[in-house]
């Protein structure tokens, strides 16, 4: 069971991703990714567990020191291994890299995460919005990529939050548990 520190999408981008999820469900029967994490987002840090009692302070510090900024979805992509994943690539820029690096520094210094995924470390990190995985085959991934080859899915994303998506023991989905607005020293809205 993995949990993650992410940015949830702005309202317009959220609607667009949900429409793509619905299209993938209707056309290809792909729905497993949205069953586990039904919140359009991109991840900065993934771990098997976090020390929830101590996590709010480092997240609040990073959020307060980071002004909201824009980045871009550059289009569809796919990972083939260790399992097929269809995604929309999020372009790295100086502001996004600075937020990601600050978050990792804070979390490593505080030692609040267990079972951290190395795929989200600053160097190999490929920010993306997952569209399909777990019930996606390599053949279906390639078919979708061919179908979408001429499709313009570029858009601007407004990055304005750090959110913890966390799954409690009996739950079937990860839920927003803590959310911090960028550029604000206000406390999180705990759900």
Summarize the structure.
By secondary structure, this protein is of the alpha+beta class. It has a single domain, classed as Cyclic phosphodiesterase (Cyclic Phosphodiesterase, Chain: A, Alpha-Beta Complex).
Helix fraction? 25-40%
Tell me the β content: 25-35%
Number of helices: 5
Element string (H = helix, E = strand): EHHEHEEHEEHEEE
Specify Rg, calculated over alpha carbons: 16 Å
The CATH architecture classification is Alpha-Beta Complex
Number of strands: 9
Strand order of the largest sheet: 5-2-1-8-9
User: What's the structural domain tally?
Assistant: 1
Rough outline = globular
What name goes with the CATH superfamily? Answer: Cyclic phosphodiesterase
Major sheet attributes:
5 strands, antiparallel
- Unreliable residue runs: none
Cα separation of the termini:
20 Å
And the CATH topology?
Cyclic Phosphodiesterase, Chain: A
- The helix-and-strand class reads alpha+beta
Q: Average pLDDT value?
A: 89
Question: What is the CATH class designation?
Answer: Alpha Beta
């Amino acid at each position: 069971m993995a949990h993650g520190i992410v940015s949830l999408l702005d309202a317009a981008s959220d609607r667009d991703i949900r429409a793509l999820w619905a299209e993938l469900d209707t056309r290809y029967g792909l729905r497993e990714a949205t069953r586990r994490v039904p919140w359009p987002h991109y991840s900065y840090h993934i771990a098997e567990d976090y020390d929830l009692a101590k996590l709010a302070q480092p997240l609040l510090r990073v959020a307060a020191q980071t002004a909201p900024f824009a980045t871009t979805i550059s289009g569809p992509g796919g990972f083939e291994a260790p399992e097929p994943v269809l995604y929309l690539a999020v372009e790295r820029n100086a502001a996004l890299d600075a937020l990601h690096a600050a978050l990792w520094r804070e979390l490593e210094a505080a030692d609040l995460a267990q079972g951290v995924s190395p795929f989200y470390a600053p160097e190999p990190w490929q920010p993306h919005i997952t569209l399909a995985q777990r019930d996606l085959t390599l053949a279906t991934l390639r078919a979708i990529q061919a179908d979408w080859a001429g499709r313009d899915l570029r858009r601007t994303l407004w990055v304005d939050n750090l959110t913890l998506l966390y799954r409690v023991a009996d739950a079937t989905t990860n839920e927003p548990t803590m959310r911090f607005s960028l550029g604000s020293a206000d406390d999180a809205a705990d759900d």
